[in-house]
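Format notes (please read before filing issues)

Several people have asked whether sequences and structure tokens are stored in separate files. They are not. Every record keeps both together, in the order shown below: the sequence lines, then the token lines. Line labels are part of the format and must not be stripped during preprocessing.
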Amino acid sequence: MRRQSRRSEERRGNGREVLILGFVTRAREFVREVLIEFRKVTWPSRQELLNSTAVVIVVTVVLAFFLGGVDIGLARIVERILR
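Then the structure lines:
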């Protein structure tokens, strides 16, 4: 009885091999689908990318100064209240 179960296990492969092959198959399919989707994307030109980056940097700096000013103003107000 033991001999027959070893043979069937050798033919089927152990469960770990099956899991690894399933993972590799799924990973390969995922990468293939990602590449297909990448081909559908409309990528920005270099100039559009630079313009968008500049806008993000300028807005971030302006917002940082604004929030810094509000923070300083509120800190002074609280300081006067607590004196």
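For reference, the curators noted about this record: DSSP finds three helices and no strands in the chain. Residues 1-41 form one domain.
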